[in-house]
TrEMBL record:
Pfam families: Pyr_redox_2. Residues 10-338 form the FAD/NAD(P)-binding domain. GO terms for molecular function: NADH dehydrogenase activity. It comes from Amycolatopsis acidiphila. PANTHER family: NADH DEHYDROGENASE, NADH DEHYDROGENASE-LIKE PROTEIN RV1812C. SUPFAM superfamilies: FAD/NAD(P)-binding domain. This is NAD(P)/FAD-dependent oxidoreductase. The keyword Lipid metabolism does not apply.
């Protein structure tokens, strides 16, 4: 007769993004009472659905609706708001730093590493000081207020050079994140000019800088070329095969010799696996990702699981063409991997064998602003309005929880009736400024 465990298995999930949330949801749904305890650790108390960040930044979606509160949906899990500092698997221990600064050691029996990716910054002068990312809800809100504040400032200045600088917006990176952010914010800024009597849409300058020779590498090259043509028709300047050399003091210098001043520099040029992985005793590849098997277990460590952007998961749908192929870092794979991962943990806990992750890429979709999009999905090339509908339908389906799906759908319906809000809430970026001013008067 098999021995009965006196204590539940301790499952520790590092990261509350796609993989962390969906894994925890799967476990809390399938685990029996007292079979295991689940703890999830993340610096933020919510999961952010990143594909909707550009629409949140442009005012098409209420920012709170693109995040899922972890404590609200993970009622059978322990949620710890803290940052992971170190992983010591030999001791089965993780060091975390809580919001108040205290350090804590968490022990586990089963570990899930879902720390995702962070922005990949290059050693470009001025980038750290001038650049703005768009990977978090805070950055999306900041960008929206920042862009609209620049319009307010430009409408109030008499200095033509300053006005030109204020109305010049630069996006670096031609992947999905960069193109969608550029298209949505450009759409919003030009729509907003109808409320400024002294700013014409042609006064606003949007610039895209991409070091590679094409944009949107996830879709067919012909669709990438079509997208560039659509952006240029909207007056957006596109620099391909061009690198950024400097952003010092907002002065942009490109590798082809182009120079201009810009008060807004949005950096979306790639991501890298969370650097915390380098501070662990787990195997990582040359790109800093955890080496994983198709079962989503870390190589050599069957009690450590991983998926998503921080994992080098073999892509079984492409291994015949390329034995070293790994799944691309996108939401499509992260969500599906998490579902397989949670099911595999349950199987192993109950004495079974894990199943391999296999998913053939369905394609990619991108929104290019209101009523505009591009998609390479199900072996079809889709452009314009149909692609925009496909983009919204796909991501609405993938958005976690019925609550959030409904709120986003209502946001879109209200936006269609009353148009998007274009008011700047720039005070959010420095909320104590007026209080400090009052204290001096």
């Amino acid at each position: 007769m098999a021995a009965v465990k006196s204590e539940p298995t301790r499952i520790l999930i590092l990261g509350g993004g796609y993989v962390g949330l969906y894994t925890a949801l799967g476990l809390q749904k399938k685990l029996r009472a007292n079979e295991a305890s689940v703890t999830i650790v993340d610096p933020q108390p919510h999961m952010t659905y990143q594909p909707f960040l550009p629409e949140a930044a442009a005012g098409a979606i209420e920012p709170r609706h693109v995040v899922v509160p972890l404590r609200r949906v993970l009622k059978r899990c322990h949620v710890l708001t803290a940052r992971v500092n170190k992983i010591e698997h030999e001791r089965k221990s993780v060091t975390v730093e809580a919001a108040d600064g205290h350090i804590e050691q968490l022990n586990y029996d089963v570990l899930v590493v879902a720390l995702g990716a962070v922005a990949r910054l290059l050693p470009i002068p001025g980038l750290a000081e001038q650049g703005i990312g768009i990977k978090t809800i805070g950055e999306a809100i900041y960008l929206r207020n920042h862009v609209l504040t620049k319009l307010d400032q430009a409408s109030s200045t008499l200095d033509p050079e300053l006005r030109k600088r204020l109305l010049t917006f630069t996006v670096v990176g031609g992947g999905f994140a960069g193109i969608e952010a550029l298209a949505e914010l450009e759409d919003m800024s030009r729509f907003a000019t109808r409320y400024y009597e002294n700013i014409h849409p042609s006064d606003i300058r949007w610039v895209l800088v991409e070091a590679a020779g094409r944009i949107l590498p996830e879709v067919r090259e012909t669709l990438g070329v079509w997208t560039v043509e659509q952006l240029e028709r909207r007056g957006i300047e596109v620099f391909l095969s061009t690198a950024a050399k400097s952003f010092e003091n907002g002065h942009v210098v490109l590798s082809d010799g182009t120079e201009f001043d810009s008060d807004t520099i949005i950096w979306t040029a790639g991501v890298k696996a969370n650097p915390v992985l380098a501070n662990s005793d787990l195997p990582i590849d040359k790109r800093g990702r955890l080496e994983a098997m198709a079962s989503l277990q870390v190589v050599g460590h069957p009690d450590v699981w991983t998926a998503g952007d921080n994992a080098a998961v073999p892509d079984l749908s492409r291994t015949e063409q390329d034995p070293t192929a790994t799944t691309p870092p996108n939401a499509q794979h992260a969500v599906r991997q998490a579902r397989v991962l949670s099911a595999n943990i349950i199987r192993v806990l109950r004495g079974g064998q894990p199943k391999d992750y296999f998913h053939k890429n369905l394609g990619a979709v991108a929104g290019l602003g209101l009523h505009k999009g591009v998609a390479d999905a199900l072996n079809l090339k889709i452009k314009g309005f149909p692609a925009w509908l496909f983009h919204r339908a796909y991501h609405l389906k993938a958005m976690p929880t019925f609550n959030r799906k409904t709120r986003i759908l209502l946001d879109w319906m209200l936006g269609g009736l009353f148009r998007r809000e274009v008011v700047s809430l720039g005070q959010i970026n420095n909320p104590k400024e007026e209080f400090a001013r009052a204290s001096k008067s």
